[in-house]
Design goal:
Layout: H1 8-25, E1 28-32, E2 42-46, H2 53-64, E3 67-73, H3 74-79, E4 88-91, H4 96-109, E5 115-119, H5 138-146, E6 149-158, E7 166-171, H6 180-195, E8 204-208, H7 213-220
Helix pairs in contact: 4-5
Length: about 230
């Protein structure tokens, strides 16, 4: 497997570049619910509907103060090896020996202070809001072996009267490891709540993005940009 290789000069440069790229693409990252903080480790699991999802979790992890890592298919990580510098590590789906190796590695990460191991248990991209979710058993096994609190996150991309899209994140209630049905129920609940959002009411912006044309024009006229 390919292990995470966070840190170093290249890692810091890459971290800054990803932050700039994210801010240039979106109006902002908005979170509803409390992101767990503190020295405890956590297993973070999310729906997977967009190419940006891994970078969203990277930004969420920075905002929460996590030492974040993310499971990624090995053929993709081989292609984009630099992502290991951001905390990506690999798995070869369908290969028992590889899955066991990744499981052991991830459980080791979960013994580190502030560690957050992020996983997309659907294992594939699916449109946001399509239910029921089809979760694979890896998240259940990792939850049991890692013995860390489990945190469901729903991610949605949408436009709210602005030329740039907003990224919305719904944080579910942390819970102990349990059967796969528990993970499915918690994540589907977060997805349903997020799908019902029609405005940014109740959300807090944790990452500010770029200004749109209207906001830049407001600045020229001496008016403060709207939120």
């Amino acid at each position: 497997m390919i292990q995470a290789a966070k840190g170093g000069l290249f890692g810091r440069v890459l971290d800054g570049y990803v932050g700039w790229k994210f801010r240039s693409a979106f109006r902002g990252l908005w979170v509803r619910g409390a992101l767990p903080r503190g020295d405890g480790a956590r297993l973070v699991y999310a729906n997977h509907s967009n190419w940006w999802d891994g970078f969203v979790l990277h930004q969420v992890g920075r905002a929460a103060g996590w030492d974040a890592y993310c499971v990624m298919e090995e053929h993709n990580l081989e292609r984009y090896r630099f992502l290991a510098r951001l905390g990506a590590f690999s798995i070869r789906r369908g290969q028992g020996a590889s899955s066991l190796e990744t499981l052991r590695y991830a459980s080791g990460l979960l013994r580190r202070p502030r560690a957050a191991v992020c996983i997309f248990p659907e294992g594939e991209l699916r449109p946001f809001g399509v239910l029921p979710l089809r979760l694979e058993r890896g998240v259940e096994l990792l939850g049991r072996v890692g013995k860390a609190e489990c945190v469901p996150l729903a991610i949605r991309y949408t436009f709210f009267e602005h030329e740039r899209p907003d990224v919305l994140v719904e944080v579910g209630a942390p819970h102990p490891a349990g059967p796969l049905s528990r993970f499915q129920s918690e994540l589907e609940g977060a997805v349903r709540r997020l799908a019902e959002a029609t405005s940014l009411e109740g959300f807090s912006r944790v990452v500010s993005g770029g200004l749109g044309v209207a906001e830049r024009w407001d600045v020229v006229r001496g008016r403060a940009p709207s939120a």
